[in-house]
Amino acid sequence: MSNTGHQPRSESPLHYGLTSQVTENASSSLVVREIHQGCHLTLRGDSGDTQFAHAVLQVTDVTLPTKPGTYIRSGNTSIYWLGPNEWLVTAASDALSLESALRQELKGHVAVVDVSGGQTQVNLSGEQVGSLLKKASVYDFGSWAEASDQSGRCTQTTFASASALVAKNADGSVDLIIRRSFSDYIMRWLLDAAR
Amino acid sequence: MKQLNRLPNAGRTNPDQNINFTFNGKAYQGVMGDTLASALLANGVDVVGRSFKYSRPRGIVGHGAEEPNGIIQLGSGAATVPNLKVTQVELYEGLEASSVNGWPTINFDLMGIMGWFGRLMPPGFYYKTFMYPQKLWMTYEHFIRKAAGLGKTPVEADPDVYDKLNQHCDVLVVGAGPAGLVAAREAAEAGARVIIADEQSEFGGSLLASTQILNGVSASQWVADMVEQLKRYNNVQQLPRSTVFGYYDHNFLTILEKRTDHLGLSAGKGQRVRQRLHRVRAKQVVLATGAFERPLVFAHNDIPGVMQASSVSTYVNRYGVAPGSKLILATTNDNAYQTAIDWHTAGRDVVAVVDSRQSPNGELVEQVRALGIQIAVGHGVIEAKGGKRVRAAMVAPLNESGSAITGEVKRLPCDLIATSGGWSAAIHLSSHTGAKPVWDESIVSFRPGDSKQQECSVGACNGTFGLRDGLIEGATAGAKAAQLAGFGLGAVQFSPVELVELTQEPQQALFLVPHSRPPSRAPSQFVDLQLDVSAGGIELAVREGFESVEHVKRYTALGFGTDQGKLGNINGMAILANALNQSISETGTTIFRPSYTPTTFGAIAGRDVGELFDPERYTSAHRWHVEQGAKFEDVGQWKRPWYFPKVNETLDQAVNRECLAVRNSVGILDASTLGKIDIQGPDAAEFITRMYTNSYLKLAAGKCRYGVMLKEDGMIFDDGVCACLSENHYLMFTTTGGAAGVLAWLELWQQTEWPELQVYFTSVTDHWATATVTGPNARKVVAKVCQDIDLTPDQFGFMDWRDGTVAGVAARVFRISFTGELSFEINVPANYGRYVWEALIEAGKEFDITPYGTETMHVLRAEKGFIIVGQDTDGSMTPADMNMDWIVGKNKAFSFIGQRSLSRSDTLRDNRKQLVGLKTIDPNIVLPEGAQIVSDPKQPIPMSMQGHVTSSYYSANMGHSIALAVVKGGLNRLGDTVYCPAADGATVPAQIVSSVFYDPKGERQNV
Amino acid sequence: MLQIYCPHCQELRSEEEFSCGGEAHIARPLAPETLTDEEWGDYLFFRKNPRGIHHEMWYHVTGCRRYFNATRNTVTYEILETYKVGTQPSIVGEGV
User: Fold this and answer.
1) Does any CB of chain B come closer than 8 Å to the CB of residue A26?
2) Which of A102, B1, B273, B773 has the most CB atoms lying inside 10 A of its own CB?
3) In a domain, C94, yes or no
């Protein structure tokens, strides 16, 4: 798609927020890493429709989570439950190919929306993660069971004075999926809360 | 200076570790483990403040949150803290404190003369005196505030750090006295997540000052063992120095944890958190907040040296301080006899125990008798004598009910009067929930009312004053709370605590010790020490006709101090009941509200300060704007470039330059903040058509349409362009500020009213970055970076959109215009937002492309008469009011949202405020936005208001100022002259003109 | 600070995640143009505002973005039940 000499430069939402003050060393009590997933798609459809769930599995190789507040993962692809007819699909691949593959396979009243530019994923690890979540959100993360490599708990909730999708990984670390326009604020907030 | 009152038995303090501090500028020494109160008492400091109204000298009375007199200012400068209680300030090296009351000094007090006028300051004094004449109130207020001693608020920024923690637990135990400790242990053993909080520096509550043996060890050893046991549970969080100050709906409680205050002011050095606000959601709450001893009310009971009996014991046993030498104990109950024993054990002189009961013979009473201490039964202390320290107690025989003096008054020399009128359960937190406290005559105390939430009260705060009973109640409640939260079977797991408890005889209810003269004539018998409310004052309020306890409280100020009447309220209510000749139950109850003790603003603000006060939302090109020196404007939470000044340019100069550049060549605006909603589904067009005033049923792919959205009342709510992307797929633009509201609005109608319509909405605001290239040269600029879209007007017309590639990035390009010029709104995935922005700037260089901000955007659209929802509208404007009837579909099959309201009699009125233009007669005057409009400036006041200015600018393109305004019947008044008052008092005449100033035929955007 | 059970997320969640949408079960008239001003005004402006049992809409705005209904006691603030749009409450107040 590139024409006549353009070499498009992509900047993640945390291009400036993280590069200046990245806190990534093993002894740190809080490690913040941005995880570049090329593909973030919002998926809408009827979870009771077995054909829909089947088609999603065919295309993504991930079972559609129908239990509220859960995600299912296979390799680099994850599907998060956002609501009774709404999911987030993240994958390492580029959004366009997965989006068109899903559009191809899914029938009936469904929607696939590319939101890759609008959000990013941040991984939080270290011993401070628990208390940090308590500072950030009114949600009771302490009630969550441990995650496995294939599935775990997730929720959309308030995060500081913004909102986020929060998911717990098998290694105890936590992924935040945050909106682009709030990402600088959330990064500043995290660095402040972790000091 | 020698600490006169320090005892050999140091209690829980460390006498080897001296701590230096100053009080009112004078240097003293205390020891590690002291509170400021115990250190002052150790040094023999009698007077710690002056009273609120009469400025009488006052000394320390209590040992905790109930203290009414020892109110101090800690430190100075930015970190100074006003209105702390000396009993709650832990001593640290270098502490500096001063009394908040007492001007100029507490020992020589000019205000003391106020005391002479005591008779002139009855209850309601302020209402009666300072109300008139009203214009003098400012003078009075200054005087009263100075006299009132409210402390000094720091004027510099708070140097300390505060934060908040959202906590969830199964069982929250409030208070770590004996009942609380065993409750926490039982709940923890059952597996529940437990938080136990206590306001004191260490757990143990009353046991810290107790001589009781529990399980064969001392009380403090037993407490230490319990704390150790609790530490072993990883499901228990212990929070000392943590006051639960509010109990709110659905078992939500707030705790103020003081983390560094005991180490000194700003001990956290701006790094460590000084105070933390815990916001706790608990499944179950066990309240074990204890009780407050009730003081006896007698004449001049406010002289320094009159103290709570339990406080005297606490200073002796816990702090190793004897606040005096010769004690008289005045009591109505057995319990307080322990103080006589403690005083005697400390080697000091007990002059007498004065017991109001006729023949007390309880086990503790017998122990005191056995020590050879004189007990005056059937007697009361009716008056204290002394100035700045008690010198004697006046003791008289009382009748059986304690209501009258029956014989000769004797003077007993002493320097300390400890009093006990029994105990009042600390029902504050239970009262916060709305539970109405119930008076229980058998314990002479209120009990918590029926639970309104998932809570129970145990131990003394439940009116269970015995230690053994309190421990049983606590353990049972802990196990039960865990069970209710889903843990264990509700049975107590630990064996009962072994202890020997002495039997006690009934106490006497005595709320006012009689004097030889009635309260109205007797020396003041103080009920509320902090606010100088006396028994006589309460009786006077009744004589003046007050009957309701709530009115009497407000009239007399009873309980309105920073101690919230923790000592005085019950006595005051009983005295009121007596004056009204009714029972305490009939008189009513008292409702406590949060906060239990004062809470700092810093803790309430937490980290939501400075740059984190509110989220700042940035667009993908934000850094470019910053680098170019843009000035920013807040639009909702967004930071939008306001204008891009060149060196030394003012706002006006920059905006004039930007405006001219757009109309004469080309400008570029970051429009990424506009809300964008992706709409998909077979019923999308039908749904959108129901939401907008116009129809989208025939909008073809590749086309856009401008729409106005109404609320059901017919008033404009949002506006924007909606594009058809493909069959059943639309993209809706909203205003920047309206994005979230519009999405919620669409969801509301789809989810609740028309679930049969198949349509999905997804916010894509953040996904797309939008650059608007606008001006006569816009096409030439876009053509340089976009080769795969045919940009010729007949192929890509006004209100079309196209998919294509801009600067190598997949883009959607919309030909929509908010400036009235040829415009291309270029949308690319936001990760490429800055790149494409810079490519457009580069491409536009030869045309001197000019980045512009929101101010220029506002001017340009006002020149065109385009409205801004929320600026030119205010929620009371219909499309017709905005002269936009053209956008209302009259023949739509479905009655769109708001349609019916457009034909209500009120919306059809012809004198509604309507949008017009205003042209000032003097072309250089820019009307103030919001200015009111009148037809005749000479009309006498009240003038009839005709409307107001909604938008107003200087237009460089027009060469004169322009304004938009809403004027009553304005559309029929074109050509009329109206008048606006200016800020300087002048009146500015202006002519009503069309709201479209520039290019009225709209030719420039359509090229 | 209320705690509200979201029937979609199937969890008790804190009030901060929600916004209240006012009285529930107000059906939009099917043919608004046939109503008198007074009838339309009733639909637009008049609400029950009861002392006691109240059925109201809540929007789980930072959660699942679904609307649902709650039966709340306006005196005690107790939320007695929540239920999905399109279903009826099981608890009904007097005189409703």
Assistant:
1) no
2) B773
3) no
Which pairing describes strands B252-258 and B273-287: parallel, antiparallel, or unpaired? antiparallel
- CB spacing of A68 vs C66 below 8 angstroms: no
| Chain C: touching chains (3 or more CB pairs < 8 Å) | A, B
Query: For residue range B393-450, what is the model confidence (pLDDT) as tens digits?
Result: 999 999 999 999 999 999 999 999 999 999 999 999 999 999 999 999 999 999 999 9
Chain C interface, best mutation among B170, B248, B250, B451, by max C CB count within 10 A: B250
Confirm whether C92 is domain-assigned. no
Beta-carbon separation of C9 and A139 below 8 A: no
For residue A111, what are the domain limits?
31-193
Q: Which domains does chain B have, with CATH numbers?
A: 14-148 (3.10.20.440), 161-288+467-484 (3.50.50.60), 622-673+767-852 (3.30.1360.120), 675-763 (3.30.70.1400), 908-993 (2.40.30.110)
Cross-chain Cβ contact A157/C62 below 8 Å? yes
Q: What is the ipTM of this complex?
A: 0.98
Q: What is the CATH number of the domain that holds C50?
A: 3.30.2270.10
Chain A: residue nearest C2 by CA?
Answer: A138
Q: What is the pLDDT of residues A76-134, one digit of tens each?
A: 999 999 999 999 999 998 899 999 999 999 999 999 999 999 999 999 999 999 999 99
Q: Do C35 and B900 touch (CB under 8 A)?
A: yes
Answer for the pair B423, B293: CB distance below 8 angstroms, yes or no. Answer: yes
One-letter amino acid at C86 equals G
Inter-residue contact A34 to A120 (CB < 8 Å) = yes
Residue of A nearest to C10 (CA): A68
Angle of helix B739-748 relative to helix B684-691, nearest 10 degrees? 110
- Contact of B796 with B815, CB cutoff 8 Å: yes
> Considering its fold, how many domains does chain A have in total?
1
| CATH number, domain with residue A60 | 3.30.1360.120
Which of B607, B611, B767 lies nearest to residue A117, judging by beta carbons?
A: B767
**Contacts made by residues C69-75, CB under 8 angstroms, sequence distance 24+:** C69/C24, C69/C25, C70/C4, C70/C24, C74/C50, C75/C51
The mean per-residue pLDDT over the stretch B854-868 comes to: 98
| C35 at B interface, C-beta within 8 A | yes
